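Colleagues,

Please find the record for the two-part complex below.
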Amino acid sequence: MEIFLNILLGFLVVCALAVSVSKNLLNSILVYMSFSLVMSVIWILLESPDLAITEAAVGAGVTSILFIITLKKIHAIVKEKDEEERNE
Amino acid sequence: MSKKVSREAYEKTRSFRFRQWFDGTKDPFLDTMEMKPQEEFCESKKLIHEQELQHRKIIEKSYDVEHNAQVRLFQKFYNIFSVIFCLCLLFILLMGVSYLPQYGHMENPVNNEVSARYIEKGLQETGAVNIVTGMILDYRAFDTLGESHVLFIATCTVLILLRVDKKKYQETAEHNDRIYEPKNDVILQTAARVLVPAIEIFGIYVILGGHLGPGGGFSGGAVCGAGLILYLNAFGFAKTEHFFTGKTYKCMCFGALACYSFAKTYSFYTGANHIESGIPLGTPGAILSSGLILVLDICVGLVVAGTMYTFYVMFRKGGY
């Protein structure tokens, strides 16, 4: 179990670095989402399931969705939009 | 003896003119000054063109980083200053850490009698099997009251910042996502049909079972709000408006916060200072037990679910 926890903690560090290094904003949001998901698994391993539920719902769910909507509103997701127009 | 003056003679006297000026019946500048109505302001095309050129020139000059010494200086200063600022912040935070009590020391506040009392007498005093819920909704219920109000204030702020006035703006695609809705995505709708009831029931279970197992108002409310957002994404605003509008949120949030405040002030006045609260704690482990904790859990859950949903709606459309 100790090794598993260490792997997850290492994953957290990698995620945190990747969010700040990544140039694409959408990518950083997705990485942030996975960060929260791993964090909730760690909360379960640390025997606090209350926090795990909250982290999964708020961190991985609602916050990332709000970020994605904001990106869509400020037209930061440009590539997808171009593709959509081409398809039409 | 007064003398009667004829009308024409009277009109030439000074007193008549003064009277006219005083009453305002005569314009003193009439016939003495040239008057013409103001022309409507309209820019000539040449002027507009000139202004545009000037504007473009200014923009070009100010964004020409290579030849603009000020911008370069500012960027250099910005880089250096950001590094210095980060280092200072790091230093201050590390200083703060160094003042923290030593880990595992006997005299630490973690090891004082409060936590021992929470663990030993928590079940007996609050009636909640889950010690965490017993702590945050009974011993420290005022903290949680403040947290719920913080959520409410956050929603108010989002409403102020992101709300779109329907009278001012025409309903364009930019301001209103509703034109594209519902998208009738079969995969999303089928998945939502299966998942949303399960998510909602799980959320309600987490709220209601807050004092029996892991969970509580905040986590359950967040799950419920996430389920509502999924439903909204699948089926569009037209369907969610049947049961959730701005008025619903207002009633729900206000009712929950008022209920929480009343319940908690009641227990504050009667339960504190060793006065009996009069609310039976029930048998630990039953769903109707542990006094007011269940009610408070439901209140917090309602506030959180409404807040999550309102955040999403405001970000998405700027109105219900």
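The first helix of chain A runs from residue 2 to 21.

Comments are welcome before we finalize the supplementary table.
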